[in-house]
Design a protein that fits this description.
The chain contains 15 helices and ten strands. It is of the alpha/beta class. Strand 7, helix 13 and strand 8 form a beta-alpha-beta unit. The protein is elongated, with a radius of gyration of 24 Å. It binds adenosine-5'-diphosphate (ADP) and magnesium ion. The site of magnesium ion has 2 residues, from helix 8.
Length: 358
């Protein structure tokens, strides 16, 4: 439910009905302040006031909870949407998702994946024999020193590069079996990218950049707008939606790239050193965004990083060295600080006490 939208709707309907805040308050037997709070989107009317409020504003309950008029043609669709939102907020999103989707389903599965780069006189084994699985809703980090094969691995999962041997399954689909044409649409349907070069188009506004990703997927315009405005608010970029990418900060650009990556609700979000070009404050914000996305939206994220602090935001970390996964670490009921310390310990063990340098 969009409290702000509901608030403005209440205000507009109150005025349409020729009522001041005090008059409405008096009719409902509550304070002026309560009305003002609703109208500013700061609180919702009490359940017991829903009915009398709807009568006074001459709207239906569905319209109140949606915050807009519902025409007869869209009644069915909108009513369902309202009902779903109400049930979701009532049950709590987490519980709701456990009940409705197989939350522990595997989104990504790698089996004995290998990549050899052949040039005329040399062959480099960039990835040796990597196998792992990622469950829906998890935030997984891949750590390793420069040259350990992280980007190669991510590019294979991104379907940008082909594995020499082994299997990569995304949403149960073996990507080796897809043609170039199929791959392009597979990428659009299933994957979201947050790479260091933001790849936002400079001739489009932030809003248009994000909308573009959704338009390609043929999502209706109203849904596009709703989705973008909601996510922009969550990621704190509402104020820059009408600006061009070169008019905003690096951190804001990265968060825009995040909104773009997740707006289409991809099965898997891939991020290669996403904080590499950010100052520490923006980096922290981006990482917290990833955590929020995985917790609240069940987004599945695979992030490559060489930085232990960034990795400490993840649920699980895979440590790569010389093209192999040498260790993995799962976050337990512990603080970020404790997890960070364990990450450093594991890194030290793998590298024989020599700390990582990029
Ligand atoms: P990381 O991202 O961990 O720094 P990369 O995946 O970029 O590591 O590289 C792993 C190894 O593969 C390195 O030895 C690198 O030189 C080699 N490599 C990466 N890309 C290519 C390529 N296109 N051709 C040949 N060798 C490559
Ligand atoms: Mg790299």
């Amino acid at each position: 439910m969009d409290q702000k939208k509901i608030g403005s709707f209440i205000a507009a309907r109150r005025k349409d009905n020729g009522l001041t805040q005090s008059q409405l308050a008096e009719k409902l037997g509550i304070t002026d302040k309560a009305i003002s709070k609703w109208e500013n989107g700061k609180s919702m009317p009490d359940l017991s006031l829903f009915s009398p409020l709807c009568d006074l504003l001459q709207i239906t309950l569905n319209e109140l909870l949606l915050g807009e008029f519902i025409s007869d043609e869209s009644l069915k669709e909108k009513s369902n949407q309202v009902l779903l939102e109400v049930v979701t907020s009532w049950l709590g999103k987490d519980q709701w998702e456990i009940k409705t989707s197989s939350q522990m389903s595997t989104v990504l599965k790698l089996k004995n994946v290998k990549k050899i780069y052949e040039t005329e006189c040399t062959s480099t084994v960039a990835v040796k024999d990597v196998s792992f699985e990622i469950a829906k809703g998890s935030f997984v980090g891949i750590m390793g020193a420069s040259g350990s094969g992280k980007t190669t691995l991510l590019n294979m999962v991104a379907t940008i590069d082909k594995a020499t041997s082994g299997q990569i399954e995304i949403d149960g689909e073996d990507i080796a079996g897809l043609s170039e044409n199929d791959l392009a649409s597979f990428r659009r349907e299933h994957l979201g990218f947050v790479f260091q070069e933001y790849n936002l188009l400079d001739t489009l506004t932030v809003y248009e950049n994000i909308a573009l990703a959704l338009t390609i997927k043929q999502i209706p315009k109203v849904t596009v707008k709703r989705t973008i405005l909601n996510l922009a608010e969550r990621l704190d970029i509402s104020d820059v939606l009408n600006k061009f990418p070169y008019e905003i900060s690096g951190g804001q650009r990265q968060r825009c790239a995040c909104v773009r990556a997740i707006a289409a609700n991809p099965s898997l979000i891939l991020a290669d050193e996403p904080t590499g070009a950010l100052d520490s404050y923006s980096a922290k914000q981006l990482l917290e965004t990833f955590v929020m996305l995985s917790r609240e939206y069940s987004a599945t994220i695979l992030m490559v990083t060489h930085d232990a602090l960034s990795a400490s935001y993840c649920d699980k970390i895979l440590f790569m060295q010389d093209g192999e996964i040498k260790a993995s670490l799962e976050r337990e009921q512990e603080s970020k600080q404790d997890f960070f310390t364990r990450i450093l310990d594991t890194m030290a063990k793998i590298t024989g006490g020599v700390p990582y340098v990029s």
